[in-house]
Every structure is written in structure tokens, then in C-alpha cells.
Amino acid sequence: MATVELRFSALPEHVRTARLVAAAVARRAGVDEAALDEVRLAVGEACSRAVGLHQSGGISAPVKVSLIEDEKQFSIEVGDEARHAVPGDQAAGAEAEAEAEEDEMGLAVISGLVDDVEVSAGEHGGLIRMTWPAALPATPLP
């Protein structure tokens, strides 16, 4: 198993770089060419979401992206350090509800692009894990 890790400042201009790196690593991992656009779009959406959460929360920590190559699958994890509302949280106001609706829309887009998606979130951050089959044997990292 090989992993490539990216960390970038929560700035929108870095999302494009994350998309390009994700597509290149996915190609090398054996993800079908037809799915590479989905990889780019899903990573762009997940990274944009993380950047927005960091910016709105005043978080200076970097956004984290892990690109994980296994024998039969390729996974991408996009992590943020934003505080996410947990069920029963009374601190959520109208602004938080509007952000939650926007967040749900982004997650819906990701779910439409990727068949295997796991989302976890809590007080200390969130993680989106997206997985695609690797049709070809993975090419080893140089």
C-alpha cells in the first residue's frame, strides 16, 4: 500500500493543485480513465468544502488530503479541522443552519460522483473518504 499526503493552506487557489495531483495518482494506481473526471470533480468538491469550513471557522491549520493506493482500490481522504455540529447541539443558529444546507449540497454532489463514500464529522474535524476500484495493477512509487 502506498500513500501520498498533501497538506495545503485553506485557500481556494490550492484546490486546483489537489485535483491535479489526485488525478495523476489515481491514474498511476490503475483507476479507469473514464473515472478520472469523477476523481477530479469529487476531490475538488471535498477540498473546496474543507477550505470553506476552515475559512468560515477562522482555522489556520492546513487541509489534509491522503491518496491511498491498495491492490484493488484507490482511496482519497480529505480532512478538515472544523468543528461540526453534532446531533442535539444547541449552539447552531440560523447562520449555522445555512452553512449546513450548503454543506449537504456539497456532500450530495460528492455522493453523486462516487459510489463508495464515507463521511465522518464531529467537534474536532471531519473526514470524507472516497474509494474507486483500481482496474489495473498499481504502478509502484518511484
Portion in beta strands: 25-35%
Give, in spatial order, the strands making up the sheet with the most strands.
1-2-3-5-4
The total count of strands amounts to 5
| Tally of alpha and pi helices | 3
- Give the averaged pLDDT, no decimals: 86
Q: What string gives the helices and strands in order?
A: EHHEEHEE
Class derived from helix and strand content: alpha+beta
- Structural shape: globular
In helices, the fraction of residues equals 40-55%
Instruction: Give the low-confidence spans.
Output: none
**How can the largest sheet be summarized?**
5 strands, antiparallel
Write the layout of secondary structure elements.
Elements: E1 2-8, H1 15-29, H2 36-57, E2 63-69, E3 73-80, H3 94-113, E4 116-122, E5 125-133
Antiparallel strand pairs: 1-2, 2-3, 3-5, 4-5
Note down, in words, how this protein is organized.
The protein is of the alpha+beta class and 142 residues long. It has 3 helices and 5 strands. The chain has helices at 15-29, 36-57, 94-113, and strands at residues 2-8, 63-69, 73-80, 116-122, 125-133. Strands 1-2-3-5-4 form a 5-stranded antiparallel β-sheet, with helices on one face. α1 packs antiparallel against α2 (36-57) and α2 (36-57) runs antiparallel to α3 (94-113). The radius of gyration is 15 Å and the shape is globular. The two termini are 14 Å apart.
